[in-house]
Amino acid sequence: MVEERQIPELVITSEADAIEAIQVLQAAVAEEADYMVRFDGFPRVELRYEGEDFKSSIPYRLFPPLVEFQKALYHLYAQTRYGDPKKPLTKDEKEALEIVVLVGDGSSDLLIDLERVLQALSNLREKMTGPQFVTITIAASVLFTAHLGWKNWLNHLTDVEQIHSQEALSEQETERLKIVTGALSGSSVRNEADKAADVLWRGVLNQVRENDKVSVGEAPSIDGETAHEIAKKPRMVAVVERYDAVYRVFTLDSSADHEYKVRLHRVSDGLTFSATTESLSMADQKAIAAAVRDRSHVDLKINAKVLRGKIAAAWITGVNEASEQAVQVE
Q1: I want to staple 213 with a disulfide (CB 3.0 to 4.6 A). Which of 7, 124, 160, 221 is the partner?
Q2: 147 and 16 in a common domain
Q3: d(CA 66, CA 298)
C-alpha cells in the first residue's frame, strides 16, 4: 500500500511569519516541493481613532472608505483568478472575500481582519506552481499590514519625510521590503495589490477631522491636519532607467526555469544591487553563469526602476557582445 504523502503546512500569524514563509516557498520552487499555507490572525489592520465622534460611537464617514477598500479587494481577486480586475465576481466569491471589521472598547479601536480574504486568494493555485503562487499572495498581504505595509505606503509619497519623518524605514525594514517586492516582481497581481493598499491607507487618513487623531498599529498618532496633508500627496511612481555597464556577478540563483536572480557590483563605481533576468537567451544565461564561475566581469544591459534615487527593482535584458572578452578578476 502506497503511503499518502503529507504536504507540510506553513501557518502565518504575523508579519515576521510572512517574510519567513516567502523565503521558504521561494526555496521550495527550486526543490520542487509544495506547502499548504494557512493564515491565522494575519493580516490585520489595527486602527485607533481619538476625537469627539469616537466616544462610544463610530461616525458614518468611516464606512465609505471601507466599501472602497472592499471593492479594491474584489479587483485584486479578479486579477489573480481571471487576469481581469474588472471581471464581475459571483455572490459566493464576494462572500468569501468579505472583510470583517471588529470594534474595540469605547468604539475608538477598529480591527480590519483580512485573514479570510488572503486565505481565499492563496487557495487559487491553478495558474502557476503552488509555491510560486502562494509566495505572491503572501507578499501582497504584507502591503496591508499595520507595520511594514503602512510604512511602505508612507515612504512612497512625495516629500513624506518632511511630514512624518519618524516613519522612515529602518535598514531591517528595507531589507524585508526587498524580499516582498522581489516576490511580487513581474507579477500582474502587484498593480492591483498596490491600488488596494493605496485605497486602504488614504481612506484611513481622509476621514480624520482637524481635531481628531488616528494611529495605525503601534505607529505614532497623526492629527487631523497632518493626516489630510499626507493623504493629498500623490504616490511616487518609479521611473525606469537604463543601467547598462560592466558588472561583477557575486551570487547566482537559477531556481526558476529560464530565470536567474543575481547580485551585481558595478565596476565603475562600486554600486551594488540585485537583479533578475527577463527572457534571456540561453547564450546570455551561460555568459552570466560563466562570469560567476570564472570571477570575471560581464557587460550587461539592465533596466531599473528608480524611486527617490534608489533602485527599487532591476532586471537584466541582455549581455553585450563585449563580454566575450571578459577579464578574469584575481
Answers
A1: 221
A2: yes
A3: 50
pLDDT tens, residue by residue, 106-135: 557 888 888 888 888 877 765 545 566 778
Given this model, what pLDDT does residue 309 score? Answer: 66
**Residues contacting residue 5 through CB under 8 Å, at least 6 positions apart:** none
Distance CA 246, CA 298 (A): 5
Kindly state whether residue 4 falls inside one of the protein's structural domains: no
Q: Are residues 53 and 174 in the same domain?
A: yes
Q: Which tens digits make up the pLDDT trace of 21-70?
A: 888 887 776 666 677 888 898 888 889 888 888 877 788 888 899 999 99
Nearest partner of 110 among 121, 102, 98, 100, judged by Cα = 102
Looking at residue 207, its amino acid is Q
Sheet containing 44-50: which strands, arranged edge to edge?
100-103, 109-113, 44-50, 213-216, 222-223
**What is the total count of domains within the chain?**
2
CB neighbours (10 Å) of residue 44? Answer: 18
Give the residue among 81, 260, 263, 274 at the shortest CA–CA distance from 181.
Answer: 274
Contacts of 129 (CB under 8 A, 6+ apart): 29, 34
pLDDT at 238: 65
Q: Which of 172, 206, 231 is the last residue of a domain?
A: 231
C-alpha 53/C-alpha 56 separation (Å) is 8
Quickly tell me which residue has 526543490 as its cell.
Answer: 31
Rounded CA-CA distance 16/85 in Å is: 29
* C-alpha cell read off for 17: 511569519
Domain range spanning residue 289?
239-325
Inside any domain, residue 330:
no
Q: Distance (Å, rounded) from C-alpha 262 to C-alpha 202?
A: 36
Average pLDDT over residues 291-308: 86
Show the DSSP H helices in 108-207 as ranges: 115-122, 130-142, 148-154, 171-184, 189-206
The phi-psi region of residue 308 (left if phi > 0; otherwise alpha if psi is between -120 and 50; otherwise beta) is left
